[in-house]
Design goal:
311 residues; alpha+beta; Immunoglobulin-like; binds 2-acetamido-2-deoxy-beta-D-glucopyranose; membrane; transmembrane
C-alpha cells in the first residue's frame, strides 16, 4: 500500500516538474536589454496617455429612400480600442469594431487600415432607418460619442390638376405626374388603372412618356376615352410616395348623338315590351269603371248604395 502511494507521489511530482529552460542562444548584453525595455515602456506609456479624440459635432445626413447612407465617425488615437455604432431609437448596438451585431445585411462598417474613419454604411435605406445613430468609444475618462442624424428623403409623386378629372366620352385623357424631392431620378414610373399597370397598353390607345431629370415628369395619354376608362389612376415611381386621381368618363354629347342616330335609323317597328302592352288597354277601362260607380253613388238613394262596393 505504502509502495503504491509512493509511486503515485513520485508520478505527480514528475508531472509537475517544469521543463528545464533551454539556455538562450545569444544572450543580449545588459545595456542592449535595458534600451529595448525603455523603448517599449515609453511607447506603452505614450499610447496609454494619448486618449482617443472624437469629432463630436452632430452631423445631419440626408439620403434618398433606396440609396446608400455613409455615417462617418472620425476618431484619432484609437489605439487598440474599437468604436461601436449604436441606434439611439432603441439603443441597439449595431457594431463593435468591425464586428456586426445585426443580422440585417444592409449594415456594414467600413474602415481601412491606418484610417481614422469608421463608417457605418447602410444600403437600400428604408423609412424605418430614419433616426439618430451614435458612434462611441470608451476612454479612461468615460465614453466619447458622436451623433449622426440620418434623414430619409422620400420622393413624392403628384398628378397635376384636382383630385378628380372629368372628361366626356370620345375625348382624350391626359394626366401629368411630377416626381419631386428626387435628386436621383427614379428607375421607373408606372401608371395604374385601378390595380392594373397600363404602361404597355399601346394597342388600347394608351401612351406613356417619361422625361427623367431633377424633376421627373411622366405623361399618360388615352385616346378616345370610353366610360370603361373611368376609375382610379395611380402614378407609381421607384422608391417614391405614389399619387392617385379619380377619372370620370361621362356619356358625352358625342355618345348621346351616336345613340340617338342609331335608334332612329333602326329598321322596322320595335316590338313593345310585354308589360306596357298589357297595361295599355286596361288603364282606360279601370278609369271608366270608377267613374260609373261614382255616378251611381250620387244618383241612387243611400239605402241602395249601402251594399255597393264603394261604401
Ligand atoms: C467635425 O466635423 C464637422 C462635420 O461633421 C466638420 O465641419 C468640422 O470641421 C470637424 N471638426 C474638426 C475639428 O475636425
Ligand atoms: C425622420 O425623423 C425626423 C426626426 O428625427 C423627422 O422629423 C422626419 O419626419 C422623419 N422622416 C421620415 C421620412 O420618417
Ligand atoms: C386609388 O388607388 C390608390 C392605390 O391603390 C389608393 O391608395 C387610393 O386610396 C385610391 N383612391 C381612391 C379614391 O379609391
Amino acid at each position: 500500500m505504502a509502495a503504491l502511494l509512493a509511486l503515485l507521489l513520485l508520478g505527480a511530482a514528475r508531472g509537475d516538474a517544469p521543463a528545464s529552460p533551454a539556455p538562450p542562444a545569444v544572450a543580449p548584453t545588459e545595456a542592449e536589454g535595458e534600451a529595448a525595455w525603455r523603448e517599449l515602456w515609453a511607447g506603452a506609456l505614450d499610447a496609454l496617455h494619448r486618449e482617443p479624440s472624437l469629432n463630436s459635432t452632430r452631423e445631419d445626413v440626408p439620403v434618398q429612400l433606396g440609396g446608400v447612407a455613409f455615417l462617418h465617425c472620425p476618431v484619432r488615437d484609437l489605439g487598440e480600442r474599437g468604436i461601436s455604432w449604436v441606434r439611439r431609437r432603441d439603443w441597439h448596438i449595431i457594431s463593435s469594431g468591425l464586428f456586426m451585431y445585426t443580422n440585417d445585411e444592409r449594415f456594414q462598417v467600413l474602415h481601412s487600415e491606418g484610417s481614422d474613419d469608421w463608417i457605418l454604411q447602410i444600403k437600400y435605406v428604408q423609412k424605418r432607418d430614419n433616426g439618430t445613430y451614435e458612434c462611441q468609444v470608451s476612454t479612461g475618462s468615460g465614453v466619447l460619442s458622436r451623433q449622426v442624424a440620418l434623414h430619409i428623403v422620400v420622393p413624392e409623386a403628384f398628378i397635376l390638376g384636382a383630385d378628380e378629372h372629368h372628361v366626356d366620352a370620345g375625348s382624350d385623357i391626359s394626366l401629368v405626374c411630377i416626381i419631386e424631392k428626387s435628386p436621383v431620378p427614379p428607375q421607373y414610373v408606372f401608371w395604374y388603372h385601378n390595380a392594373r399597370m397600363i404602361n404597355y397598353d399601346a394597342a388600347r390607345g394608351v401612351a406613356v412618356r417619361t422625361e427623367r431629370g431633377g424633376k421627373t415628369q411622366s405623361t399618360l395619354a388615352i385616346r378616345r376615352a370610353a366610360p370603361r376608362h373611368s376609375g382610379n389612376y395611380t402614378c407609381r415611381a421607384a422608391d417614391t410616395e405614389p399619387a392617385s386621381i379619380l377619372v370620370y368618363v361621362s356619356e358625352g354629347s358625342d355618345k348621346m348623338a351616336a345613340t340617338l342616330s342609331r335608334s332612329s335609323a333602326a329598321p322596322g317597328p320595335r316590338p313593345p315590351r310585354p308589360a306596357a302592352r298589357a297595361a295599355a288597354p286596361l288603364l282606360p277601362a279601370l278609369l271608366l269603371g270608377a267613374l260609373l260607380l261614382l255616378a251611381l253613388d250620387l244618383l241612387l238613394p243611400t239605402g241602395l248604395a249601402a251594399w255597393l262596393p264603394l261604401r
